[in-house]
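Predict the assembly for these two chains.
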Amino acid sequence: MHSALWISKTGLDAQQTDIANISNNLANASTVGFKKSRAVFEDLLYQTVNQAGGISSQETKMPAGLTLGAGTKVTATQRVFTQGTVQSTDNSLDMMVDGAGFFQIQLPDGNIGYTRNGQFALDEEGQLVTPGSGYLLDPGIAVPDNAQSITVSTDGEVSVRLNGETENQVVGQIEIANFINPTGLEPIGQNLYLQTGASGDAVIGTPGLDGMGSILQGALESSNVNVTEELVNMIESQRVYEMNSKVISTVDEMLSNLNQQL
Amino acid sequence: MDNFLYLAASGATQNMNALGVHANNLANAKSDAFKADMHQARSMQAYGEGLPTRVFAMEERPASNFDSGALKTTGRAMDVAIKGQGWLVVQDGNGGEGLTRAGALRFDETGMLLNNQGRPVLGEAGPIFAPLPIEKVEIAVDGMVTVRPQGAPADGFEEVGQLRLSNPEVANLTKGEDGLFRDLDNDNYPTDITVQLQSGTLEGSNVNPVEEMVGMLAAQRQFDMQIKLMKTAEENDQAGSRMMDV
């Protein structure tokens, strides 16, 4: 069959992947700490039909050849780690990383997950856990049950004011992790990422020092999805999809014309 | 059977090839910095015994369209678009050099600067490496890549290399099978200091959908005409056969 059919098929596939990616971004437009991803398109290999410089007669050479492209492909979905906007909540257990870095979460399987979502809650033992699944913050921080108030400093020191006391008492230190190539992190849902060979090993440090982001208590980081950008992208993908399907119907008409006429 | 059947068949095949070029352009309407391929048909004299009365059509891709694509603002510091003319020099799969304008750059886990196709982006002295871990990257207008290593003070930017921005004559450039552009006569891409970058933006594809659609329709109609010719050849042939029936 004709190559144009397969070329436009790659276009349709790629646009479909792009739309899926865009809809995931839009679905997470209000997910705290969500980082948008974008599809990266690339042209596929080219095949040479006529070689430039081929012999056209005994004395002459062809000045140009014909190389046909094989279409397009989505080679990667690249996560964009720009900072989301600050959403002030005044809840003392809400915190966000202002700058680079991730909170570390103890997963049930023993691995460490990384997140930008700082909506913490307390479990029945007074430990800081993620709001959805109740996974422990790592290193763990336990708040005594007679605590009146909790304060988190920008460098991650967690202190509490106990009932009847006047001095704050330090109960733990939040550490954050950073990566050489955060784009290479593997998203596993629930706002969590796992480190991979591409992301490099986590570099763990104190918030606000050594290039790590500092911690802002009483605020959350909104998703960095730009809704307008996503909609523009969606329109673009839809139109490109339509044009590629037009190519398919054109080739179809040509072939059917050929079959009917001859 | 008359030879012109073969002429029509060659024309139809070439129209199909033309459609392939349009299909590929349209498929890449969202590929960053993609340059649309042009195509043209050329007459090819059929040499051999007898009178030189047959001229076949031959489809060619004489060049690509080197116009700039639309700029898209991404806000990512490692996305660079080239203002006006110019190219980034990257290493191809064989260790040679090729040119591209696709500038979504990243560092790999060894600190080597790559473009989004995973090809090392070259500076004056080969691939560019940055000390890891990096906190912040900036790419200047002239292609100077500076990074602030993690833990360095706010002004602790280090220069890690300068992107080789070259501006060879586009008339000599051809797109290779890997999609990179090359100057086949002169495999040397020196720095041109007039080429400038803009970071935080990417260049889109320069495919003009309207042009491609019109080209596609033209190829389709021409194809239909070739079929008509083939049909005529068949009818002529039948007429000849009928005369013999008497």
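The mean pLDDT of chain B is 85. Residues 2-65+207-245 of chain B form one domain.
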